[in-house]
Every structure is written in structure tokens, then in C-alpha cells.
Amino acid sequence: MSADFSSNPMARVIWGLFLILLTLSSGTFSWGKEIRIGMSAAFTGPTRGLGIELYRGSMAYFSHINESGGIFGHKINVIAYDDGYNPVPTIRNTIRLVEDDDVLLLFDYVGTPTVTRMLPLLKIYGSQRDLFLFFPFSGAQPQRVRPYGEYVFNLRASYSQEIDALVEYLVSRGRSRIAVFYQIDAYGRSGWEAVHKSLARKGLRVVGEATYYRGTTYQSDMKSQVKTIRNSSPDAIISIGAYEACAAFIRDSRNAGLNVPIANVSFVDSENKLKLLLKTGQETGRDYTVNLINSQVVPSYEETELPAVAEYRQLITQYDVMPAKSLIRQDYEPHKYSPVSFEGFLNAKLLVEILKRLGPDFHPKAVKAVVEGIRGYDLGIGVPVNFGPDRHQGLDAVFLTTVEQGRFVPIPERTGREK
Fold first, then answer.
1. Which of 200, 160, 192 is nearest to 176 (CA)?
2. 253: part of which helix (H) or strand (E)?
3. Residue 361's CB: how many other CB atoms inside 10 A?
4. Which CATH superfamily is domain 12-156+302-396 in?
5. Which CATH class is domain 159-296?
6. Cβ–Cβ under 8 Å, residues 163 and 196
7. pLDDT score of 105 more than 60
8. Is the pLDDT of residue 19 over 50?
9. How far apart are CA 180 and CA 234, in angstroms?
10. What is the structure's pLDDT at 375?
11. Angle 231-292-216 (CA atoms, 0-180°, nearest 5)?
């Protein structure tokens, strides 16, 4: 049966309303045969490596699923916008994703200053539309506690847990005079507070601190920050920042003879930081990679005995999907493997499991109960994923790494398995 509405505008309007009501009554949030997922991340600027690598890892798994027929016949469509690691574009992108693109959920957002600023908007959409943000690349507290935590599902451990692991490791090796170098915004302050609290629990205090502004590049001079921290006579430094600024700080610290251990949290993007330091080392004949420690929230991609690592290495080689040129607008050399792309891969793998558990209707109202019902899920990394009504963080594991022969490798006694 077919109908010709060309001569009856009112009939076209009524038919259109009928189709909309039919779609809404079915409970599905995807139009046609696709599941729309919204992503806002840094694809340009000095933090672009994070957004690009996270996207690459997620798309490797999503591409595999789509090529295998999708989920109940629906293909996953990731709609990604660049925010340059700045809060205002993040808010605009979120509105566009929800109002114009009609996404089922938000996914893979990058950064504390960006995520924390969009949380009030998320709370509105969450209460009105059952919209959730899944697996942001941030370990900050605001999306883990009231009033916003109920609208966010985190996979990764928090910055507090990463810093506790770093402090525990440094103090166990006799390093008690710890200074902090941090990005002066919500992200840096979150880490700064965690360092102070973690040391206080051991009867210690921060001996010195220095800051830098978000967006600082590797070409920037960090000599004044190095001098400030060096004057406090630290025997270790914990950095909470992005890879270009932290690499610049390491470079100028080593040039000034400050050779104490320097530790970074996972957000720094250890692979891009290391690439900058290795390049400078080749140019100057100096080794800038000694005494570097990095906490990670996923196992090392070198641990190929783990099923998820083996799968990741296979699929990111098979489906190496870069963001659209209109997003990155600059040359970027992707890493073969990286902790960030591996995290994106695990994010996608868990999200696919959640979508499968939702059933073929993908009803938004069912999302919360489905995710909170996940207990002991084996993601293939040797640590089970657990959620619950009062637990919107799936993993607590922290993995410590250090540099050997030009690459980050696990610190054997801190593999994260005990978590």
C-alpha cells in the first residue's frame, strides 16, 4: 500500500507526526539502522593526541562490530566534534549532539575542565531524556559524586587512586619530600588536592609546587617552574598535566640537573610525552627518560598474554581509523599502540556489551538499570568490571610503568592486579 501526499500538505504533516509517535512509542533512540553515539574531544591543539588516540582505539572495536553485522543489525555511528580541550566548545558540541544529532548517549569525552563544565547541562538532559555520559577520559571527582555522578558511568580509576598508588610507590622507596607540578585549572587542582590528601595520610606534606596554564606547548620555557620546585629540595615530583607541558618541564628539569623521579598520571599521554623527550634527546645527546614513572588505568599493551591486549593489537592494526581531516586539520602520526588508544578500545568493548544487554529496542530508560546490573564482567584484562546503584566506576586498578630502552614498561611489583 502506498500513499501520494503531494497534493495534500496537511496529510503530509499528519503522516510525519504519526511516524515520530511510532518511533517514540517503540522506545528506540536510533533512527533507521544505526546507533548514534556522541563524542566531544580534543582533536586539535597541544592535547590533540589524547582525542585522536582515544578515537582510534574505540573505532577499532566499533569497526569490527559493524563489519560483523552490528548490534541487532544496527551499525554504530560515532558522531565526533572537536573541542580543542576547551570548555565552551564542549558545551556547544553537547547541545548539538543531543538536539541536532539525536544521540543515544555521550561517550569518550576528554578532559576534566571540559567534562566538569558540561556536567550541569548533562544533569538537565539526564533528568529529561535519560541521557548518560559513558567513560570520559578523566579521573576527576565531580563526575563521580553528587549531584552529577548519577548521570556518568566511568570505567577508569580516579586520579585520587592513581596518585595514591604513585605516593605509595615513591614513599616505599624512601622518597618523602614530594613536590607537585600542575596545570592550573580544574584538572590540575583535582590532582593537586589528591597529592596533598595522599601525603597527609602518611604524615607528610607537599614541599614545593609550581603551575602552568592549560594550552602550554613543548616549546615553552619551564625554567622558572623548575627553579621554584628545585628550591624546595624535593626527592620526587608528581606532575598533573598534559603531555607537551609536562615534557617541557621534564626537559628543563634535567637540563638544570634536577634528576629526581618525576611521576605523571595517565592523562598526560605517556607515549606522546615520551616521543617528544626521545626526539630532544637525539638532538642534544642527553637522556631525558631516566627516572620517569607513569600511572596508567589500563594494563600495558605489552602484556599480550591478556586476551584484551591481544585482541586490541590485532584490531587496531586491522581497523586503524583516524578522525576526519576536517576534525584534526593538522598532520598527526598515530602510535602503533598506546595506553590511550587501548583505553578507548576497552571503552568501546564494554559499551558494546551494554548495548547488547539493552536489547534490540535500545530503550534509554533501561540504560541505568542495565549498567548498574553489571557485576564481575570479564573485559579480558585480568581485573573484573563492577557497577552498581552506588558505584558508577567500573574499575579501581592502577598500573605503574617506567621507561626502559625508549619505551614504557610495567613496574613488575605494581601491575595493578592486586586491585
1. 200
2. helix 243-255
3. 13
4. Response regulator (3.40.50.2300)
5. alpha beta
6. no
7. yes
8. no
9. 9
10. 98
11. 70
